Amino acid sequence: MKKKVNKNREKLSSEEIAKRRDFGSLMKQFAAVKPVQKPFYKTWGFISGAAAVVVGTVATVVYMNMNSPASEQRQAETATQAAPQGDYTYNHSDSVKFVGKAPFINPPFKNLDKEFNTYKVDASKKTEISYPSGSKVIFPKDAFMDAAGNIVKGEVEVKYREFHDPVDFFLSGIPMTYDSAGKTYTFESAGMLELYAFQNGEVVRVNPSKRIDIELASRQKGKFNVYQLDTAGKNWVYKGVDKVKEPVKQDTKEMNKDTVLLASQITQQSTTLVYPDQLDSKGYVWPYDSLTAPVKKAKNEVQDVQNDIAKIEQTKPVQPKKVDPKRYTFNIDVDPKEFPELAVYKNLLFEIGPDKENSFWKPEMGKVTWDDALITEHKKGESYLLTLKKGKEKRKLIVYPVFEGANYDVAVNEYMKKLEEYNKVLGQKKEEEKKKQADYEAQVKKMKEEQKLQQQKMKEEQKKQQEMMKQQQQVMQQSNKVTRLFTIDGFGIWNCDTPRSFPKGAVVKATFTDQTGGELILPVIYQVDRIMNALFTYYGGAVIEQFRYNPQSGTQVWAVTLDGRLAVASESDFRNGPVSGSKSFKMKLFDANLNSESEIRKILNIGFYASN
Amino acid sequence: MEVVSKYHITEEKQRQELLEIEAAKKSPAKFEVLYNRYHEQIFRYVYQRVDDKDSAFDITQQVFLKALTKLDKYEYKGVPFSSWLYRIAKSETYEALRQNQKLRAVNIDDPGLSEVLGEMGEKEERLEELYGAQLADAIAELDEEDLQLVEMRFFEKRAFKEIGEILEITENNAKVKLYRVIDKLRKMIVRK
User: Fold this and answer.
1) What is the pLDDT of residues A140-193, one digit of tens each?
2) Residues A83-112: tens digit of each pLDDT
C-alpha cells in the first residue's frame, strides 16, 4: 500500500474533537438504515378481503370498516398523527383538533403493537388452539362462513392475541372507556382478546349458527361482564356475563425453588461458555485469558524460544577487518558484556572511518592525550561511536573495529569458529521454535475441538433446562389464574370488564410540565390506579380541569408527547399531592426511540403479565 | 518511555460497561454513553491513518454507526468493548481509503522519531539530525502490521497491554514484535 508521510501535523485538542461529536446525527443515520416494523394491519392482505364482507354481522364490522370510506379516513388520520416531530410546533387549538382526528384504535407506538399468534385450523373439524397465557379457543366443526354465505371447508388461518394489564391496554390503543346512560366509565378488565380468521387471504366470519368457546386465562377473581368492541358505533356492546373456573392447586413453593435453581444453573453456564467457532472466524486471534492451560503453556514456550533467538542474534560475531595503514587507529579496551559480538577478539583496534562526520579529524589530534574515551554502538555489527573528552572539549568519531598484521589472521580464525558456533546455536533454536510452534498449533486445534464438543453439549443441556423452566413457570402461572368461560358469535375485540368511575379522593386542575418547567401539551393522559386493572384516559392538551385521583392508592400517570416521547409523572406527586385546587405535575421525558415493550414496562414499573 | 493510557478500565467499570451495552442493544438511544466515551479514542486512531480531519470525522461516525447496527451481535469474549470498536475502525478506515482512492497516511512527529531512535540506541542529537529523515522514510516503508506497532507505540503513545489488546496479541508478544521492527528499521537505515 502506498503511503503519504506527514511530519509534525498539528494535533487536535480534545475540545475540538468533542465539538464534532454528534450523537443526534448518528441516531438519524441509524434510523435510516434500521428496518422499520410494519404494523399488523398494514402487513396483511385482509384489508382488501375485508371489503367483500361488509355485509356481514355486527361482529365482523369491527375491523372490516378499515376499508370503508371511514377506514380510509382513519388511515389518513394515522398518517397525520405520525407527522408531528422535529420542527413541529404546537398550539393549544391543535390539541382539540388532534384528539378529535385521532383514529378510534390508536396505538401510541406503532412499532410496539402486540403481535398476533397465527394458528392453522381445519374448518371441518372441532379444533382447539392454545395461547401461551394458558387461554384456549375452541372452534366447533363448520365454525366459519365466507362472504357469500357458504360454510368454509379446509384450512383456515386464525390470528389471535390478548391484552391483560394497563401497559397492554396502553400499547394496543384500544379505547377502554364505556358510555352508558349518558355517563362515561372506564373498564376494569379481567382480560381482553382479539381474533380474526382468513382463508386464502380472504376474511371469513363466524357461522351464525355456531358459537366459538373461549377459555380466557385471567388473574382477576370473580365474574366480569363480556363486551365486544363495535368500531363503527365507537362503543363497547354488552354481551353477557362470563363463568369462572377456579385453578387446580399446585405445590408452587417447591416448583419455584426448582425454577430458581435451574435459572441459576443456566446463568452460570452462559457465563462460562466459550464459542470457538465464532471466535476463530476470519482469523480472529484468541484472547490470552480464554486459552486452556496446555495452550497457554505451548504459547509461552514459543515466545520463550523467540526471545532466546532474539538474544542469540545479538551475539552474532562481527567479521574482522584489516587495518588501513593510512587511517588513524585507537587501542581501546571494550567491556565484553557490553559488546558480546567483540568479546571473541584480542588486540582489537578502532579505526577512524571515511565518514563525513569524521572530517574534522586532523592528524595532530592524535597527539592529544585525551582524558576519556567512550565506545558506544553505532551501526549494529559494523561501526561504533567513539567519544573523546579532554576538559570541556568533546569529540565524536565513527570508528570501525580492525586488526593489524598477524592479529587479523587470528581474528579471522576466531571469527570463523565463533560464526560456526553462532549459526549452530541459532539453527538449533530455530528448529526448536518450529517444533514449539507446531506443538502450539496442535494444542490450539485440540482445544478448539474440545471446546466445540463442550459447547455443543452445553447448548443442548441449556436448551433442555430452559424448556423445563418454561414449562414449570407456565404451570406455576396457570395455578394463579382463573379461566373465564364465554362464547363469541363474531370475530374482533372481546373484553371481560366491569365499568368503573374515575378514582375518588382528589380533584385538581392539572397542568403538566417537563423537568425544566416547560409546559407540555399532552393529547391523551393515561392514569392507572394500582388497586384496579384499569387504564383511565383524559383527552385534553394543556389543562385537565378535573383531574381525579386517589391519594391513598398508588397512582401512575403518563402520556405521549406530540414528538413521540413517553412522559411519566412521579408517583410521589400523587401520594402527597393536593386534594383540590391547581397542581402542575412534572413529567420525566424519555427518548422517542423506545424499541420494546419491556423497555416501557421498566420505565412504568409494571411487569409483564405472566406468560403473555 | 512513559506511556499513560486512558484505555484500561477496572473490572467494575467493565461490568458497568457490559450493562450499558446490553441497555443499548435494547434501546439504541442508550448507545450515547458509549459513543461519548470512545469517540475521541477512535477518532485519534482513524486520524493517525488518514490525511485530513474531515474524512477522519466521517469515518469515525461510520465506525459508530456500524457498531450500533451490529451491536446485537456483540458478545463479551474477554477483550474490552473498545477492542471491538478498534477492529471496526481499522476495517472502516481502510475501506474508506480504498473507496476514495486516498493514500494511507503515516503521521509522524519529532518526539516520536526521537523515541524510535532512542530505542535503537541512537541517543545523540547529531545522529537524530542525520538519521531522522531516513527513519521517517523507513517507517513509511514498513508493512502494515509492523507500521501499526510503531505508530501505536511511538506516535499514539499506547501501552503494550493496550497495543496487545487492539491487535489481539499478548502484551509480551507485542514487545517482542516491536523489538524486531526496531531492529528491522535499524537495518533499513543502515542500508540507505
Assistant:
1) 999 999 888 889 999 999 999 999 999 999 999 998 988 776 677 889 999 999
2) 222 222 223 333 333 333 456 788 888 888
- Measured between CA atoms, the residue of chain A closest to residue B62 is A26
Interface residue A36 vs chain B (CB under 8 A): no
d(CA A411, CA A193): 100
Specify the residue for cell string 380468521.
A197
**Alpha helices per DSSP H over B3-77:** 11-26, 32-49, 53-69
Shortest CA distance from B94: residue in chain A = A1
Return residues 163-182 of B near A (CB < 8 Å): 167-170, 172-173, 176, 179-180
- The band of A335, judged by pLDDT with boundaries at 50, 70 and 90, is confident
Q: Do A287 and B61 touch (CB under 8 A)?
A: no
Q: How far is A451 from B106, CA to CA, in rounded Å?
A: 41
**Alpha-carbon distance values, A432 to A294, A295, A308 (Å):** 18, 17, 11
What is the SS3 assignment for A481? coil
Kindly tell me if the per-residue pLDDT of A475 is higher than 70: no
DSSP annotation string for A270-331: HHH---HHHHTGGGPPPPGGGS-HHHHHHHHHHHHHHHHHHHHHHTPPPPP-B--TTS-EE-
Q: Residue A242 corresponds to which cell in the numbers above? A: 362470563
Q: How far apart are CA A191 and CA A164, in angstroms?
A: 5
Higher-confidence residue of B134 and A459: namely A459
Contacts of A442-451 with C-beta under 8 Å, sequence gap 24+, read A443/A292, A443/A294, A443/A295, A443/A297, A443/A298, A444/A286, A444/A295, A444/A298, A446/A294, A447/A276, A447/A291, A447/A292, A447/A294, A447/A295, A448/A276, A448/A280, A450/A292, A451/A274, A451/A276
**Contact A3/B79, CB-based, under 8 Å?**
no
CB contact under 8 A, B176 and A30: no
Residue of A26, A29, A380 with shortest CB distance to B35: A26
Listed residue (B94, B83, B82, B109) closest to B55, CA to CA: B94
List, as ranges, residues 260-289 from A with C-beta within 8 Å of B.
274-275, 278-279, 284-289
**Which residue type does A303 have?**
Q
Choose the mutation target among B126, B168, B184 for the interface with A, i.e. most A CBs under 10 Å.
B168
Name the residue of chain A whose CA is nearest to B188's CA: A379
- Strands B104-108 and A3-7, bridge-based pairing: parallel
Weakest-pLDDT range from A241-245, A264-268, B12-16? A264-268
Closest partner residue to A596 among B26, B47, B124, by Cβ? B26
Chain A residues within an 8 Å CB radius of B35: 21, 23, 26
Q: Are A328 and A351 in contact (CB under 8 A)?
A: yes
Indicate the pLDDT class of residue B9, thresholds 50, 70 and 90: low
Closest CA–CA distance from residue A93 to any residue of chain B (Å): 32
CB within 8 Å: B26 and A30: no
| Cell numbers for B20 | 450499558
pLDDT digits (tens, 9 = 90+) for A556-568: 999 988 778 899 9
Mean pLDDT of all residues belonging to chain A: 77
Three-class secondary structure of residue B125 per DSSP: helix
**CA–CA distances in Å: residue A360 to residues A396, A399, B160:** 10, 14, 43
The closest CB to that of B136, out of A7, A21, A310, belongs to A7
